[in-house]
Amino acid sequence: LRWLNYLRPNIKHGGFSEEEDSIILSLYISIGSRWSIIAAQLPGR
């Protein structure tokens, strides 16, 4: 399953963009280290 998810064409690989960094930072400040919730806010990651 992990390999199939890796092969999906709509998944972004590489570093985070400036916009994604700001989303991660603001969510981390507001809700803490609840990474599953933060990940749900980053489509394609």
From TrEMBL:
Ranges where the Myb-like domain occurs: 8-45
Domain of life per record: Eukaryota
Main localisation: nucleus
Subcellular compartments: Nucleus
Pfam families noted in UniProt: Myb_DNA-binding (PF00249)
Gene Ontology molecular functions: DNA binding
Stretches assigned to the HTH myb-type domain: 8-45
Entry keyword Cell wall biogenesis/degradation: no
Keywords linked to the UniProt accession: Activator, DNA-binding, Nucleus, Repeat, Transcription, Transcription regulation
PROSITE patterns: HTH_MYB, MYB_LIKE
One of the record's GO cellular component terms: nucleus
Name assigned to this protein: R2R3-MYB transcription factor
